Amino acid sequence: MYELVVGINIGIFILLALSLNVITGYAGQPSMGHAAFFGIGAYTAAVMTAKLGLSFWLSLPVAGIAAGVVGVLLGLVSLRVRDDFLAVTTIGVNFVAVAIFHYTPYLGSSYGLEVNKPVLFGTELGNPEFFALIVVLIILVCLLCVKIQNSWLGLALSGIRNNEEAAASLGIDVSRFKIIAFTIGTAIAGSTGAVYAHYMGFIYSSDFAFITSISILSMIVIGGMGTIRGAITGAIILGLMPEIFRFISDYRMLLYGGLLVFMMRFQPEGLLGENSFVWRKLSPCLNKAAAMMGLSSQRRISGDGKH
Amino acid sequence: MIMQQVLNGLVIGGVYALTAMGAAMVYGILRILDLASAGAYAIGAYAGLFLYLATDNIVLSFTGAILLTGFFGTAVQKLLYIPMLNRPPIVPLIASIGLFIFIQDLLRLIAGPRIRVFNVQLPFSAWRTENLTVNPTWILIILLAAAFLALLWYILTRTRIGLAWRATAQDLEIAKAMGVNINKVVALNFFLGYSFAAAAGIMVGMLYSSVFPTMGDVPAYKMLALIVLGGLGSPVGTVIAALLIGLIETLVAGYIGFFLPRDAIAFVALIIILLIKPEGLISKKA
Predict the structure, then answer these.
(1) Where is this protein localized, as stated in its record (chain B) (predicted)?
(2) What's the pTM value of the predicted model, to 2 decimals?
(3) Half-sphere exposure of residue A289: CA atoms within 13 angstroms, side-chain side
């Protein structure tokens, strides 16, 4: 049971990391307020089911749409402010969102908002069902990410990430693709928020604070930015850290901060990033294994389809 | 009443200016958004408190804390930021966030999570007129902030090191080729930047007579907002932005009674100003 709870938590982080990876990893837009969209989705879903009495299954896509709509706005902002300016603007967006959650009486203010567990075929969803739901969502999001990577959209985004001016001069509609990336990324985060709200049964404004955004960003950076394997690995590592280091819980944040500094200083490509030490060692092995199993080696090494 | 609010706003703005100045200087030269200088703010406040408890002399503890934090700054740039110069900007940014978390937690472990009282008796008393009260700590803060900013202005515009500084801020590689000792420039830059942040931390500790491990939280984000608003690395722009945000916050919270807290007001103002002027208040290109 305990493993299941940890698994669900990590699953939620994986979804969040994958969604931020679309914005920051693929499109190269530094978003430091991703938790705001997670929160928008969570509060939208919570209001829909707890206040309006609608179904959880309806709230799941609507939460995504709500976060996605705000994401379009942020995408529009990102057309005007770039790089460091965008990073700081998104921090601001996160602060404003949390303040709104915290000071709106309808959203429970500082008391938080209680949410009932969703019902499927007459029975309340328990932890195993939630775990299954999250696994399904992760698979769907991964498929979507692979699709993005192997499509014209993915090419355009990596062009924008590498050099915006050059991409624009090649006829890529930079504005359109940036907004698409923001919309997809924030919509996934919003739906994840709906799952989170209903799994927890209770949401509170500080669940979606800046520090959560930092955790999500750290996951994709530590795992290796711009890759699906990196986002998942990062989410697992940072999601497991509080569990593994429970016995030294007093030093947890100290270790967390230290790990971030250490990784950035010595392995900024992340553990499994394109040029990272581990991946350089690991990918030939995977390649060999794939060749032995008769898979096309080319397909295997470029798992994220960028070559 | 309006005068009182404006004065409140200016005092807050002055503290913001000092806090943000360090980060603005770092950004000006290395193009790194340095959240860790908000850690320096907390380190300064704690060092000031402990030195004051040990020596009972505010001048001594103030100077000691500033120097200590300054040396910490030079160590940080040598060990952490200089090796990261050629990385994408998000790398040092995350490293600085990590360092900030590390510092905060270290302070919590060393000094305990509770709020520590920082009471200093100042040699001058409150200054009152019919509709204006000037608290003694405010006088000190305004004087010190002005002195520090004047010192910075003097160094930047009237000395050789200031010249080297401005050259490095324009183009690090070319300045290096022209024989500017980059290491020295950057080291001094961090020393001053972190000691400014420490000074601001001690002043805020005295202003609210409390020091606590997470006291750097709000200044950290606000500081980022300020240097961005100030046009990234422009010292004049940062001071203007700091005073402006201090005033906007105080006046909006005091008069319009906006339903969001004052820290959120600062960010709403930031987002609006950035949307109108995406390059910050004082643009490099202008």
Answers:
(1) Cell membrane
(2) 0.85
(3) 7
